[in-house]
Amino acid sequence: MQKGTTRPGWTAVAGLITLSAVPVIAGAARLTELGSGGPISAENARFFAAPLPLVLHIVGASGFCVLGALQFAPRLRRRGWHRTAGRWLVPCGLVAALSGLWMTLSYQIPDSVVLAAGRIVFGSAMALCLVLGFAAIRRRDFIQHRAWMIRGYAIGLGAGTQVLTLMPLSFADGPPDALSRALLVIAGWVINLAVAEWLIRKPTSVAKEIR
């Protein structure tokens, strides 16, 4: 690939890793908190009582976000990275999606019904996209493989976008309204999926270069 096409690819990688940074760092801090034994509060007591789904979610989501970002690097794709990383990417994504569903259904999370429903819908959609992407590559359907994997990655990267969509709440007077927070969280997933569909359908997009 020529220099002119390589640079945009690495720009995309840098942007995706930057978007992943906040949830990855927050996850690492949570793991450190669990490993050190506290302090325990009303907010995190459920994690200390049943840490397994949280640990699986953090590890799976962190690996999925970082490996997924590197899939957009043209030079690494030429060196066979895409196929090798893909063998880890799909399991990491499935662990992240399924453990997210596990937490939603098992933890006593002070969320609104709308947000809980959103977590179930998008977590299930992420797992389905990854399964469909894996099935497509098994039958050598590269176009559908790219499309489904980009959709699954977009959902998995939702936590990064949600940092941005939730920012208006920091300027609000008083405690945030539960419904407003739920809608802003869901907006993060919707925005990512909209961008994913645009990339998939854009004839000259990086999506068409992924192997």
TrEMBL record:
The lineage of its organism: Bacteria, Bacillati, Actinomycetota, Actinomycetes, Pseudonocardiales. Keywords: Membrane, Transmembrane, Transmembrane helix. Pfam families: DUF2306 (PF10067). The chain crosses the membrane at residues 52-73, 85-105, 117-137, 149-172, 178-200. The keyword Transmembrane applies. This is DUF2306 domain-containing protein. InterPro entries: DUF2306_membrane. The keyword Membrane applies.
